[in-house]
Amino acid sequence: MRPDWNRWVRRGRWALLGSLAYLGLNVLEVVLGSYRDRTGMADCAIILGAAVWPGERPSLALRARTWRGGEVYRAGYTRHLILTGSVGKHPPAEAEVMRRLLTAWGVPAEAMVLEDQAKTTAESARLCAEIMRRRGWESALIVSDPWHTPRAARLFRREGIRALPCPAFDSPTWTRLGKRLYYTLREAAILASRRFLS
Fold this sequence. Notes:
single chain; alpha/beta; two-stranded antiparallel ribbon; 7 helices
């Protein structure tokens, strides 16, 4: 019996169209969520790490996230900052580089709590939630790049935290169109794959 190639082509075409539509819905979710800024009063602000460059220098994204966290602290939205991120490709830990920046910008040491073990956003959510529970904190501003805050806030909510997205709109991964497109598509692919596998 000869295979019905036309039928297989049709099935493949519909499967491809379905996959593209599914990815498109996730792209839309990331794009819409990126603009959701719910900055307000919270028990703490959690600044999610980004790359450290050679020579212990913060990447531009890490600097932008840290600056945003310092802004909400100085504006009085919170009295506590949790800095999360382990050692990546270059030492020291992302949390430590953030601490140095915030100290240089005048944030007192007693306002900062370092979490320097997390290597992923999910690990940051779990480990920061443990810190919050020990201190009796229930709400947190989630500070990261705009394309990242929707998924990050969702992961913190799964840990029982009242998570409020607090995007760093000055990050170069957002202000530069090519980078924004790349990271939005990447984030949408992560969302799509995790939903498919869950």
